[in-house]
Amino acid sequence: MKAWRVHELGQPRDVLTFEDVPDLEPKPGELLVKVLSAAANFPDVLLCRGEYQIKPPLPFTPGVELCGEVVGLGEGVTEFAVGDRVIGMPSLPNGGFAELAVMSSATAFPAPEALDDAEASALSIGYQTGWFALHRRTQIQPGETLLVQAAAGGVGSAAVQLGKAAGAKVIGVVGGPEKAAYTRELGADLVIDRHSEDFVQAVKDFTDGRGADVVFDPVGGDSYTKSTKCIAFEGRIIVIGFASGTIPSPGLNHALIKNYSIIGLHWGLYNAYNPAAIRECHNELTRMATAGEIKPMISERLGLTDVADGIARLGEGTTVGRLAFLPGR
């Protein structure tokens, strides 16, 4: 089979190579899937650089999220059958940027029929992260104002749609006019281009000085610091990650004075500590997709041979929206 491999760590464009590798075999409890689509995620960039919390042994195939067709079952797998269409995270070091991948049956989900392969491949990580952030960790309420940093990115775009579906007024912060146009199409009520606008003042103006009730922050760094300047009284800042590369040091005295909460979310830990909550979340996302309340917007549908360039552009911050790689293209 064909697969992208990383033999040494570095920038994606430099270290990803397209190779012939032996076909995979599922171990007990695993599914062997033909990859129908693999969505690009920022963790794929970090994996190539060796900066992700998971460090698979070299060489490895990145690609942390996919939609696939089950073509083989490992011993003990009874909840899926050959021919089923599934989504979820493949088992590293054999990720989704390949013709075949393996997945744990415990963390695979039926693909929603309402979504095509590319859309379904982008549902697991971003939308589950967004759902847990907005509904389990911050309990967003109808009529509240949600500020989404990096709103055109993978998890940010999901948060915009989920916030609108929850009845919130959504402000999206992006970098550049193309990303702003994409975020408006997602349904954001206000889109702020941080390259040309002061988002702190824009949030205050939009909320009549109150500020945002919930801040969804996968960026960290200066974005987090500025978010604290436009958070509402009794607001909640949900920390998702640090795409800026800078981990902020929050001023707890400021949180005390303004009565706001700083809340962390490591979505992946729910697989270990509360897998039933992950299943419940998937069932709700499937319902929402069927009802037309959410739908991943895929801005680029690329072939498998385009992985190195696509992941490199994602890491450079020049992509707009979600990228999906379809081996059949």
UniProtKB/TrEMBL annotation:
Domain Enoyl reductase (ER): where?
Answer: 11-325
> Keywords of this protein's UniProt record, alphabetized?
Oxidoreductase
What EC identifiers does the entry list?
A: 1.-.-.-
A Gene Ontology molecular function term of the record: oxidoreductase activity
Sorted alphabetically, which Pfam families does this protein's record hold?
ADH_N, ADH_zinc_N
The record ties this protein, via SUPFAM superfamilies, to: GroES-like, NAD(P)-binding Rossmann-fold domains
Which superkingdom? Answer: Bacteria
- List, alphabetically, the SMART domains matched: PKS_ER (SM00829)
Q: What class of enzyme is it?
A: oxidoreductase
What the entry lists under PANTHER family is as follows:
QUINONE OXIDOREDUCTASE-LIKE PROTEIN 2, SHORT-CHAIN DEHYDROGENASE/REDUCTASE
Q: What is this protein called?
A: NADPH:quinone oxidoreductase family protein
Q: Which organism is it from?
A: Rhodococcus jostii
Lineage here is: Bacteria, Bacillati, Actinomycetota, Actinomycetes, Mycobacteriales
